Amino acid sequence: MEPKKNPQFEVKRNTDLYFVIGLATVLLLTYVVLEWKTFYETDIDIAKHHVPQELIEEVPITVQKLPDPPKPKIQAPPVIEIAPDDDDIIESVIESNEPDQNTEIVNYTDIDVAEIDEPEEIPFSVIEEVPVFPGCENEEDKRACFQEMMQKHIRKNFRYPKVAQEMGLQGRVNIVFTIQKDGSIDNIKMRGPHEALEGEAARIISKLPKMTPGKQRGTPVKVPFAIPITFKLQ
Fold it and tell me: Start and end of every TonB C-terminal domain (predicted)?
C-alpha cells in the first residue's frame, strides 16, 4: 500500500513563484542602495555679497588748459613799381596768303615735279608687266605663258643625280631667283633635303635664257620668282 501526499503540502508546488518574488526583492534593494544619498551637516559659512546690477563709475572732472592759438602772420602788401613807358613799337602787318584776282598765275613749266620713288624689286604676282620668257612675246597672257615655259625648261634639262639615286634621295627643292633689270638670272637660292638635289636644281635654273625684264610703270625692275622642283625615284 503506497502512501499518499497532500498536494497542498508539496514543497515544489510554488517554486517558480518564490524565485520571481525573491529576484524582484533583490533588484529593488540593489536599486535603493545605489540611489541612497547621505547629506552631512557642515559648519562652513558661505559669504554672500550683493552685487548691483549696474556699476556706475563717477568720472572725476578735470580742467585742461589748451595752448593759445598761433598768431596770424601779417604779410606786407606787395610793392607796386611803375615801369617807364617803352619806346614806340612798330607792329608788322601780316598779309593774307589767299589768292585773289590780283594773284599772278605761275607757269606750270616752272614747277618742279618730284620723281616717284619706285621700289627696285617687285614680286612676280603684283608687277604690272611680267618678265617675258623667250617665245611668249606674242602671247596675250604672258604670265601664264611664263609659268608654262618654266615647266618645259625644267623637264627638258632635268637629270636625276647619280649620287642621289644611289643614296635613295628624293624630295622637293624650293628655288627662288631674281630676274634682273637687264633680263639675266641672278641671286639663286634653294632649299632641299640634300646638297646633291639642291645642286641639280641650281644647275637647271642657271640654264634659263635671258628674258625681257619686268616693268613697273614703264621702268625695268628686279622681279623675284619662286618655283619648286620635285625629285622622285621611280
Answer: 145-234
